[in-house]
Each structure stands twice: as C-alpha cells, then as structure tokens.
Design brief:
CATH superfamily of the largest domain: CoaB-like
Number of strands: 19
Radius of gyration: 25 Å
Number of domains: 2
Bound molecules: cytidine-5'-monophosphate
CATH topology of the largest domain: Rossmann fold
Largest sheet: 8 strands, mixed
Strand content: 15-25%
Shape: globular
Oligomer: single chain
Helix content: 25-40%
Number of helices: 13
CATH class of the largest domain: Alpha Beta
CATH architecture of the largest domain: 3-Layer(aba) Sandwich
C-alpha cells in the first residue's frame, strides 16, 4: 500500500527524466507524497518548477537549497522517507552510489540513509552493458538496493537494446511490491537463528594462512532472508567477500575455533544454519614468527590437526540446548546424493542442502547454485536457482518448521 507513504524521489539527468513527472502523479494518485531531489544535470531535462508544482513542495537541487539546515538537514530529508526511488538512475549516479560518493545533495542523501532504495536505471545500451556498470550494479545489489527495469527497446540515441527507463506504471508496481514485502507477515518474529557463513582462515604463521574459495554469498543471503521474515539473526562469519547482510547481528571470526566459540556464545537459538566452509584441519602449532626459507631448498612440513565439527557438535547437544532445527550444507564434487544423505545422518542435522561444487559449475563464489534438499523423509531437487532464491525458499521452510514444532526433527 502506497497510501500514506512518503517517497523521496531522486531524479538524475537523462532524456527519460521527464517521465519522473508521470511517476510523481501516479504515486500521488495512489495516496503517497513525494519530495523530489534533482541532480544538477536533471535540471537540464526537467525544470525544478514543474517538479515542485506537481509535488506541492519545493524540489531540491543543491545542498545549499537546504537553507534551513537546522530544520531539515539532508540526513533528516533522507531518513524521513519510507522509500527512496531513483528514477531515472544514470550510469553516473549508480557509480557514485556504488562508490559511496557524496558530492551533491542527491548522493549525500543516498549515503546518509538506511532507508530502502529502489533504482530505475536508464542509459545508453553500451553504458548499461559496460563492465563498470555491471560491477556497480552488483555492488548495489549486495548493498540491498533493489532495481526495476531497464526495458529493452529503441533508445533516444537510435541504438537498440536494454537501457530504457522502466515505464512509470512499472516503477509504481515495484514501489507497491516493496511496501507489500515490508508489510508481509513476519512469521519468524521473536525467533533467534544462528547462521554461519564464509570461509575460515587457519594461520600457518603470522602472515600466512590456509583458507578456501567460499565467498559467503549464500550464507549472507540466507541471513538476510531470515531477517526479512522477522528473525533475530546472529550471523557468524569468516572473512567473506560479500557485504554483511542487512538487519543481522554480525559476529566476525577468522578461525574454526573462533567460529565454534561464537556459535556456542550465541546459543540459545530456535534454529542454526551452518553455511560456512569451515577448514577441516588447522596447523597444529602455527609459528610465532614468519617461517623463513632455510637455504637448503627443503620446504617446511606442516602438521595438521582436525578442527571441531561445529555443525555436528550443535546437532548433538542435549535437547534442552539444541536448537529445534539444525541445518547443514554439503559441498560435493562427486556422488552428491549418496554422500549428502550419509553426511546428514553422520552429522545429526535435521536438514542438509547439498550442492555440486565441481570445477566448472561456478557454484563456489558464484551467484547461482543447484540445491538438493535432504531431510529424514528423503530428498527434493530444488534445481538451478540464484543463491537469493534458495535463501528465500529455505527461510520460508524454516518459518514453516518452527511454526509446527516437532515437524523439523526426525533424524
Ligand atoms: O563435512 P563437511 O565439511 O562436508 O560438512 C559441511 C557442513 O558442516 C556445513 O554445513 C559446514 O558449515 C559444517 N561444518 C562445520 N564445522 C566443520 C566442518 C563443517 O560446522 N569443522
């Protein structure tokens, strides 16, 4: 429902900027209010006067427009909105957002807020396809920014392809979908879930370590999906590549032993999901100083000892301390089904999500995966999907299991 909602609309410069006028009208018709900010270049395509007239309040361009800085600073401006919509979002503004720049009112507001942001990109097709724009969009997606469009079609410049601003009606639908999500039931409210994620780092000496290729992408997506359903999430993460999930308590760790301690410290929990790629072994006694080449050409011999299996130890806790639902992951490169089923039983977890991480699948570190789900009753092939989709599906299932006590277990 948009009725009663306040939207901060940021209009950046582009031939499609005039469509912002139609968008303002649609938002208002749906019962929302709009405060507009125009970038300097947007004012060449649409006048602040027409935007102000439609919004019924002055459109702002410069930081200096906030003459009453004490009454309505840019921080207040961006935080008082229920949603920030950037339409059209040029390649340049997206780059500034991804880089965290704050060199005008629009970018300053975007940096100074934790209000959700929806962007509607519009640019030339080559700019849209450029690796720099791809990179920036990936960063923004990881930051939790959502996107509508762009559409494909003939561009103002005569070229054809993706890059056209989504139709105002489609942007309105995306705004409605955002508020529908926000107002959706939160079935995990009052529940505490622990999620482990990322690789661990096992020191060899003060400057070297053993680790693995885990990006932490799947774990972060799961934590965020659980938080969206209202759970309090303790996110215990090794040094990951991706941004921390929004709305979670972040507990950064390095080694498997630290991860074990953090997980135990986060108990009690209603559910625990072990997504981390924990190093199976650690160096028995890491050197206190950097190991030096001794001139003989003989490499050092490292002695390993096994790390504790955090998942198995939590799954085997006495019922009073054990989370009602314990979920493991398995990354396999061969005999996936047989190995995963055996692993679920051996570890004592209720559910196990297995994926094939053979070289060439791109699963390790990638944004897509292919999951086979195992519980006490058998297996279910979830097929190929993005890690975000898998995360939402898993979070929904966790909510279902916790709502029906006793249904999750049965190892
Ligand atoms: O035995 P394997 O490493 O294949 O098991 C994977 C599952 O066990 C994952 O859920 C992982 O997070 C968890 N695990 C753990 N502690 C370890 C090793 C694995 O929690 N030491």
């Amino acid at each position: 429902m948009i009725a009663g909602k306040h939207i901060l609309l940021i209009v950046s410069g582009g031939i499609a900027a005039y469509k912002a006028l139609e968008l303002i009208r649609l938002i208002q018709k749906a019962g929302g209010t709009v405060q507009a900010i125009l970038t300097e270049s947007a004012t060449r395509f649409v006048t602040p006067l027409s935007v102000s007239t439609l919004c019924g309040r002055p459109a702002l361009v410069e930081l200096f427009d906030l003459t009453r800085e004490t009454e309505i600073g840019h921080i207040e401006l961006s935080r008082s909105a229920d949603l920030i919509v950037v339409a059209p979002a040029t390649a340049h503004l997206l780059a500034r957002m991804a880089g965290g720049l704050a060199d005008d009112l629009a970018s300053t507001c975007l940096l100074a807020t934790d209000t959700p942001v929806l962007v509607a990109p519009a640019m030339n097709v080559r700019m849209w396809q450029h690796p720099a724009t791809r990179r920036n969009l990936e960063i923004l997606a990881a930051d939790g920014v959502t996107m509508v469009g762009p559409d494909e079609g003939e561009m103002a410049c005569g070229e054809y392809g993706p890059g056209r601003l989504a139709q105002p009606q489609a942007i309105l639908t995306a705004i409605e979908a955002h508020f529908a999500r926000m107002e959706a039931p939160r079935p995990l409210a009052g529940r505490h879930v622990i999620v482990t994620s990322g690789p661990t780092r096992e020191p060899i000496d003060p400057v070297r370590y053993i680790s693995n290729q885990s990006s932490g992408r799947q774990g972060a997506a799961i934590a965020e999906a659980l938080a969206e359903l209202g759970a309090r999430v303790s996110f215990v993460t090794g040094p990951a590549e991706v941004t921390d999930p929004r709305g979670c308590d972040i507990v950064p760790v390095e080694t498997a032993l630290e991860m074990e301690k953090a997980v135990n410290g986060a108990l009690p929990a209603d559910a625990a999901i072990f997504c981390a790629a924990v190093a199976d072994w650690r160096v028995a006694s890491p050197a206190g100083n950097k190991i030096k080449k001794d001139g003989s050409g003989t490499p050092p011999v490292l002695e390993f000892i096994q790390n504790p299996d955090i998942l198995a130890s939590i799954a085997r806790l006495e019922p009073a301390r054990r989370p009602a639902l314990v979920v493991g992951f398995a990354a396999e490169t061969e005999n996936l089904v047989a190995n995963a089923e055996a692993k679920r039983r051996a570890k004592g977890c209720d559910w196990l999500l297995a994926n094939d991480v053979s070289p060439g699948t791109g699963v390790m570190g990638g944004s897509d995966t292919a999951i086979v789900f195992f519980d006490a009753h058998g297996s279910e092939d979830w097929g190929q999907a993005s890690k975000r989709v898998v995360a939402r599906r898993l979070a929904g299932r966790v909510a279902g299991a916790l709502a029906a006590p006793g249904s999750a277990q049965g190892v």
